[in-house]
Amino acid sequence: MKNLADGVYFTGMLNPNMRVFDVIMRTEYGTSYNSYVVRGTQKTALIEAAHRSFSALFQEELAQALPQGCAPDYLILNHTEPDHSGCVAELLERFPKLEVFATQAASVYLKNITNIPDLRVHVVKDGETLELGGKTLRFLSAPFLHWPDSMFTYLEEDKILFSCDFLGAHYCEPGVLDTHLVYRKAYEDALKNYFDCIFGPFQPWVRKGLAKIAPLDVDMLCPSHGPVLTRGCLLENALAQYTLWSREESAGAKKIPIFYCTAYGNTAALAEAVRGGILRVFPDAQCKIYNIIEHDLDALVALLNGSDAFAVGCLTINRDAVPPIYSLLAHADAINMAKRPAALFASYGWSGEGFANTAARLNSLKCRVFEEQFKVTLVPTAADLAAAADFGERFADSIC
Ligand SMILES: Cc1cc2nc3c(=O)[nH]c(=O)nc-3n(C[C@H](O)[C@H](O)[C@H](O)COP(=O)(O)O)c2cc1C
Ligand SMILES: [Fe+2]
Ligand SMILES: [Fe+2]
């Protein structure tokens, strides 16, 4: 337990040994599951809870921040992902009168997380306030940061914003406050990694979240992971970074990368021809060709996800597409792939499943797969290459 301001306490749990979060994220600096207690003269609120595995420790920590023998009156959940809500069922067993405040979406998720179907949740409206006695909590709608359920809570008198995952980092140092941070560079690495993995697919919502914070007077920002950020130390920097990382790119040259795999060069030759056709329509396009196995997968994933359109060429081996194609497409940002124009081409020998299976993945991503697909048996002839170029041109025309 740590006192952050008069009547405001940090009751977070440190998890320095975590190395993977939510399957998709490496967390070399561990994490913390931050929670906070706000004590007014009349009522006490707990903001966020903790991961289920920390339930017992969390309750001990919480007891230290509460007036002797008292229960918290309110539990504010800005977001219900189980890293913050996993121990709520146990918390409610211990404090049956605890009143939960959350958004409409959160109220539904929380029932399915606690498996308490008749769980009562006070569903908050944007701008609604809760009086604790000399401490006023204001709830601010901030959806899709990064689930539909998310919101912010602002403590007006102390100018403290509880932002849950927003501006958080999977990072763990015992000092809690940014002013006590020892390894600043490591923290900055964690902040960026967190942004990329958690908020990368939600950039329009990040911009809305930043706009929501902009008019507030914030002296301290309390996220649900990593250090508490204060004005004059790291708060301004974190806000500036989020602004930079989420900014809309100005419409410049079209980005149309071409990815392929090849064993004998046939699909590679088709890739060159398709590129030539695309460049006829968009001479300035960023339209490079990438043999997937020769490049760093993360770099290719960034090109794929940042593209305006893309093309994929996949040979067939043993009645299937090849693993590097699946790996690349497995990392596609499915949230933002819908309607992305995609063209498919390939050389095959006799059955051509590489083609069909790649198309299936593109369709499941809801890409706008160019209706014509370009297949050649074995070695493309000069006529095939000319046709591939025309195919590339028609594809480019279709995305104008
Ligand atoms: C090990 C191996 C297995 C193959 N299996 C299939 C197959 O199951 N069905 C098919 O249509 N073609 C199959 N092929 C043929 C290739 O898809 C064909 O040779 C194609 O032209 C290769 O394109 P590339 O030059 O871009 O590697 C196979 C080729 C190899 C080398
Ligand atoms: Fe989350
Ligand atoms: Fe989280």
How would you explain this protein's 3D organization?
The chain is α/β, with parallel strands linked by helices and 400 residues long. The chain has two domains: 244 residues, Ribonuclease Z/Hydroxyacylglutathione hydrolase-like (Metallo-beta-lactamase, Chain A); 141 residues, Flavodoxin domain (Rossmann fold, 3-Layer(aba) Sandwich), CATH 3.40.50. It is 33% helix and 22% strand. It contains twelve helices and 23 strands. The strands form five sheets. Strands 1-2-7-8-9-10-11 form a seven-stranded mixed sheet. A six-stranded mixed sheet has the order 12-13-14-15-16-17, covered by helices on one side. Strands 18, 19, 20, 21, 22 and 23 form a six-stranded parallel sheet that branches. Helix 11 links the parallel strand 21 and strand 22. Helix 6 packs antiparallel against helix 7 and helix 8 crosses helix 12. The radius of gyration is 26 Å and the shape is elongated. The model has no long low-confidence stretch (mean pLDDT 97). The structure holds flavin mononucleotide and fe (ii) ion (2 copies). The site of flavin mononucleotide has 18 residues, from helix 8 and strand 21.
List the ions, cofactors and other small molecules found in this model: flavin mononucleotide, fe (ii) ion
Low-pLDDT runs of 5+ residues are none
Given helix and strand content, the structural type is alpha/beta
Shape-level CATH architecture of the largest domain = 4-Layer Sandwich
Q: Report the count of strand segments.
A: 23
Q: What's the overall geometry?
A: elongated
Please give the alpha-carbon distance between the first and last residues: 58 Å
**Tally of helical runs:** 12
Q: Find the CATH topology of the largest domain.
A: Metallo-beta-lactamase, Chain A
> Strand content of the residues, in percent?
15-25%
